[in-house]
Write a structure and sequence with these properties.
Length: 263
């Protein structure tokens, strides 16, 4: 090759090197910044942090009002008082309507019982059974996503300008409330954004939106959940949480023998 040809080739190569580096650099940046789908440790950490946003790890008490609207516009209102300790122990007491006051649900692990004033012994209930409207027993009595599901990070995406983790939560066994959940969590602060709940037959049951983030029991949490029923067109339930406070709750409260003593 002549010296002129060599110089010409060198000039062409030098022009292409900056362009090649410019093209490669963004791709490398994306690879470093974007979480790897399927990273189990990262997925578990995200779900655990979002659980702590939704509810305290310590014992707490909270009031819940559930309003269910059906297609004809009628609304059913029910109120509950919830005592919870460590994700595995929950008592749910009906306070309204007056005709159902005195009914109490007790959750221990994945076991759920209801005490009815007219029945001497507690009755066993499944977590997935409908409580009212689009709300299942497990939605109110047990909300331990990190303990009940194996998470997998599917992707990241933008929703209304917010960067989101999108996770798939697969049930650890059939005793939990849902077979599968697709879960959106904000990357910036681990606030839950949305969840889609699926049955064992992979049918969409409902969609939940986490809304009205306000400070309760020491940190900002979603104070409203809106559940849109996918099986009953036009039906949705809102769960409004109020007066949440941390409480020392002795273990004896979460026993079947103690239910009759709760007021």
């Amino acid at each position: 090759m002549t010296s002129c040809a060599k110089k010409s080739s060198s000039r062409v190569l030098l022009r292409w090197v900056p362009l090649a580096l410019w093209l490669i650099a963004p791709a490398a940046g994306v690879a470093q910044d974007a979480p790897a789908p399927g990273d189990d440790a990262l997925a578990a950490s995200i779900v655990q942090k979002a659980d702590l946003v939704r509810f305290p790890a310590e014992g707490f008490e909270v009031g819940v009002t559930i309003n269910t609207t059906i297609p004809d516009g009628a609304t059913d209102t029910r109120k509950y008082r919830v005592l919870s300790k460590g994700n595995e122990n929950t008592v749910v007491m009906v306070t309204e309507p007056a005709s159902e006051r005195g009914q109490i649900m007790l959750m221990k692990g994945h076991d759920l019982w209801v005490f009815l004033p007219a029945v001497s012994q507690p009755v066993r209930l499944p977590l997935a059974q409908r409580l009212t409207g689009a709300v299942a027993n497990g939605d109110l009595a047990r909300a331990n996503f990190s303990g009940d599901y194996k998470p997998q990070l599917l992707r990241t995406e933008k929703v209304d300008g917010e960067s989101m983790y999108v996770l798939e939560l697969s049930a650890v066994d059939r005793s939990v409330t849902y077979h599968r959940i697709v879960y959106w969590v904000r990357q910036s602060n681990f606030w839950p954004q949305k969840a889609e709940f699926y049955s064992l037959s992979e049918r969409l049951l409902k969609t939940c939106l986490y809304q009205k983030f306000e400070k309760m029991a020491g940190r900002v949490r979603p104070t409203r959940l809106t559940m849109v029923d996918a099986l009953r067109a036009g039906e949705e339930s809102t769960l409004d949480y109020n007066d949440m406070r941390l409480r020392e709750l002795p273990d004896k409260i979460f026993t079947k023998d103690y239910l009759k003593r709760l007021e």
